[in-house]
Known about the structure:
By secondary structure, this protein is of the alpha+beta class. 39% of the residues lie in helices and 20% in strands. It has eight helices and eleven strands.
Amino acid sequence: MQVAEFYNRDFLRDNYVFKKPCRELEHYIDFFWQSNYSFDEDVSIKTFPRLGSTLLINLGNPFTFLKGNVSCAINEPVYYVRNKPITTLHAPGNLLFGVQFTINLPLLFKKTFAPTNEAWPLNKFFEPRTINSMVAENDFNGRVQIIEQVLINRLSDKLAYKAGIINNALTLMSKNANEGYPIKQVCNNIGCSPKTLERYFTQHLNLTPKKAAGIIRARSAIDKYVNSREKFKPHLSGYYDASHFYKQINRFTAG
């Protein structure tokens, strides 16, 4: 079976559980998730580029991770940036726990991190006892509480200020995804210079504001297209015409 983000919502809704973060982490984490696979055949799941990064802990059988030119079997906790399409190959017995970050995890740990196609071992950021506690925990909410407490202890006023600027900018970009909201106008609305915003985005998202806005626009357009193909009008989503839309989206989803 082949499953793709946006196009197979029922499968994703039926086979995953989701949870929003606590208030202290809402500028850093989009959501927590855990698989609840009920299928009895091999499944290929493709997700498209998005902002942020993912922490993933494999609690069951190994699965295959494909990103760019990297293909590897995942049987240990990992962390990876969501800057390209990712395909994961699953079999019955897989069980996954994950965290979708809106910023890059290394910033919380004051580490440098060059984004690649690799899945990085999670022990670069977390102590083994923390990882082992999450693996040993039998309850989804229990795992969430363990990692939330660790991350809360990493917060600082300086990081909170930067994350606030980034999230305010992303909110404006999302609300105006169809209009190609100028970055200069975003900066004027949030009280931040273009140079500072570019630095924050590069540090926390490994993307320029312009590239981030492009990802937001593409994901918004795909969502609208899948929801109502008959009513979808490319020019209302920031594309010149249908040809421009299909060309750009094919490039976006192919990586």
